[in-house]
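INTERNAL AUDIT FORM
Audit reference: QA-55
Scope: verify that the stored structure record matches its stored sequence.
Auditor: D.O.
Record contents follow.
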Amino acid sequence: MLIATIEELEQEAMQLQAYLETTMSEQAEEALIRGNDLSAWVARTGKMKADAKYRLNEALQTGLIKQLVEASKAIPNISTKAVNAIVDSACRREHHLYDMIERLNRTATHQLDWCRSVLATAREDRRAQVGINQGRYGQ
């Protein structure tokens, strides 16, 4: 299995960010197209999230991080929380990327739900219109 690099993940995340920032109309046709795109993005961000987590864990296992943890043991009265903050700071790029991809996944999911609502409303409007027209001309 191929795991994306940090740079590849960042580039793809920025592309999705730009897509999610575009405003969609309430037209059913547009909601259908966008919903199809969003379905693919939700699936893709699942893989991106896993890859980002892998890269984060990889960064946490580097020699530098292990040295930081070992060096912190020599400092009297240093708390675990302080050590974790130092480690998190050393891996801030990976943490940021993982958090961003997770938020993109959630946002894409919410937008997909909105597209479904637009389509459901359009479907109900069509049913109501057909009912009105049948009532007028069916008598």
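Auditor finding: record pair retrieved intact. The two ends are 65 Å apart (CA to CA).
Action required: none
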